[in-house]
Amino acid sequence: MKFRVERDVLAESVAWAARSLPSRPSVPILAGLLVEAEDGQITLSGFDYETSVRVTVPAQVADAGKCLISGRLMADISKSLPNQPVDIAVDGAKAQVTCGSSRFTLQTLPTEEYPALPDLPAASGTVRSDVFAQAVAQVVTAAGREDTLPVLTGVRVEIEGSTISLLATDRYRLAIRELEWNPQSPDASAAALIPARVLSETAKAMTGTDIIVSLATPGSGDGIVGFEGEVSGGNRRATTTIIAPARRNSANAAITPPTYHSATRRSGAVSATSAARASAATIVAAATSGGTRRRAGAMLSRNSVPGGICPIAASGHSEKTSTVNNPLSAAMASGSG
């Protein structure tokens, strides 16, 4: 394999792909970055069995092929290279990186041991990248960061027709943001709980005009969500597994998957924002004990302001900043044992 690529394009692409690689992988092969060269382009891929990333950029390919190299090492090397075209050639178990007077030799890993990346689910619709990035940035600040409660470390994405609702809570605050998008089907209806970190990094990385959102629900057998978009350097896509939350029906009942869509939303008796709040209350009830639910509250604001107050921006509402104390207290207390 041998190809030439622009230094800035390579550095930006490698940095984004390597960011998703695990720092302490359970299997050493997962620390690798898969490089594939063919038909005037190169593809960089990373996968940790939960999150996959793939970026395709133009390049001058002399010899097609693929290799597996250390992702974080390649990221460190690429950002320190001079501003000149980069030549990468693979000979046996060695990869030679040349840029001007700089030369690096990397040990390759066996590509046959690298797991296959999951396929992107069928496209569900498109959303403007700038609007999506702003909405995600407003909501992820309210997501939990405690690994002991993984259900609260995600952002709930609800699709109802031409509206996407993003919700996040850490039991003490709640962030809700609604935005318009272009669904493939006008009566589209789905919900998924996506890791907040993955969603945030993906939204910031895809800076093109539109982002293609692909959602496969657990009922369809895949249980993954995918995002794909064009950037100045090429094409980027990412997939991640959906967090599978659970709900405790009673103090001694078994843990069962929750029903995401509330009866009020199905009947159309309340607005999407009200149903979103009810869904967030369900998430809180699923992950906390009764005593914690009695104490938990939420602080809501329509705009992102300093001090950790959560943003809310629902269609049809004014942009005036307001704060409501404990709007979920009744819902959470009613679910206590």
Verbal overview:
This protein is α+β, with helices and mostly antiparallel strands and 337 residues long. The protein folds into 2 domains: 2-113, Roll (DNA Polymerase III, Chain A, domain 2), CATH 3.10.150.10; 123-191 and 245-334, Roll (DNA Polymerase III, Chain A, domain 2). The protein has helices at 7-19, 71-79, 129-140, 196-205, 263-267, 272-287, 290-295, 329-334; strands at 2-5, 32-38, 41-47, 51-58, 60-63, 65-70, 86-91, 94-99, 102-107, 123-128, 154-160, 163-169, 174-180, 182-183, 189-195, 210-215, 224-231, 234-241, 247-248, 255-256, 299-301, 310-313, 324-325. The strands form 4 sheets. It has a 9-stranded antiparallel beta sheet with strand order 6-2-3-4-18-17-16-10-14. Strands 15-11-12-13-22-21-23 form a 7-stranded mixed beta sheet, sandwiched between helices. A 5-stranded antiparallel beta sheet has the order 5-1-7-8-9. The longest helix has 16 residues, at 272-287. Mean pLDDT is 77; it is low at 245-273 and 286-337.
What percentage of amino acids are in beta strands?
Answer: 35-45%
On the 0-100 scale, what is the average pLDDT? Answer: 77
Number of domains: 2
Structural class, from secondary structure content?
alpha+beta
